[in-house]
Write a structure and sequence with these properties.
Distance between the termini of chain A: 36 Å
Helix content of chain B: under 10%
Oligomer: heterodimer
Number of strands of chain A: 11
Radius of gyration of chain B: 14 Å
Structural class of chain B: mainly beta
Number of strands of chain B: 11
Chain lengths: 107, 122
């Protein structure tokens, strides 16, 4: 199975800050990577697919990059509604696997 | 509006069985792969299984192979997860989701249902 490792596990930031979360795959997955946002008590929401494509309806302050084994999710200017947990997920092969999550907290 | 609604969760003893259902609406169900994923309390996300649009292919997480079976009824715009020989470690919120992608591969899951809680405990 492909292991997905996110860093950091948690991060504190302020409204207006730029935040970057990284995700590393245990082997190359080309650009078959998605990013999800999950708020407490809610289902995950797809933000980014194929590493850098913005899902319809997602604000443009979210962006993704990377290929192979190393990927990043960047939020350019944090808004209050962005405080949540973020997960990466590889869609390269079965079983699809997720990172352990990065909790984004208000400083 | 694209919507997925799960049902069938509950409390079951170890070794017991449960059948989850997911009702889909707002999109052409019979052209999409569909998935189940789960999240143990306070833990991360874990993909469980998915099924091809015509039901002819299924894939599973190793830890549920032989115990869980995914199926679908395109006439009812619904799919299911039959869970047998349940273990304490299967306790989780179970989400159904639509697979998104194209002929070149999978992109991810969108949308997700609101989840149904399965608790395995004596």
């Amino acid at each position: 199975d492909i292991q997905m490792t996110q860093s950091p596990s948690s991060v504190s930031a302020s409204v207006g800050d730029r935040v970057t979360i990284t995700c590393r795959a245990s082997r190359g997955i080309s650009t078959w990577l998605g990013w999800y946002q999950q708020k407490p008590g809610k289902a995950p929401k797809l933000l980014i697919y194929t590493a850098s494509s913005l899902q319809s309806g997602v604000p443009s302050r979210f962006s993704g990059s990377g290929s192979g084994t190393d990927f990043t999710l960047t939020i350019s200017s944090l808004q209050p509604e962005d405080f949540a947990t973020y997960y990466c997920q590889q869609a390269f092969n079965f079983p699809f696997t997720f990172g352990q999550g990065t909790r984004l907290e208000i400083k | 509006e694209v919507q997925l609604v799960e049902s069938g969760g509950g409390l079951v003893q170890p070794g017991g069985s449960l059948r989850l259902s997911c009702a889909a609406s707002g999109f052409t169900f019979n052209i999409h792969w569909m998935s189940w994923a789960r999240q143990a309390p306070g833990k991360g996300l874990e993909w469980v299984a998915n099924i091809k649009p015509d039901g002819s292919e299924e894939y599973y997480l190793d830890s549920v192979k032989g115990r869980f079976t995914i199926s679908r009824d395109n006439a009812k715009n619904s799919f299911y997860l039959q869970m047998n020989s349940l273990r304490v470690e299967d306790t989780a919120m179970y989400y159904c989701a639509r697979d998104v992608g194209d002929n070149s591969g999978w992109y991810g899951f969108d949308p997700w249902g609101q989840g149904t809680l399965v608790t395995v405990s004596s």
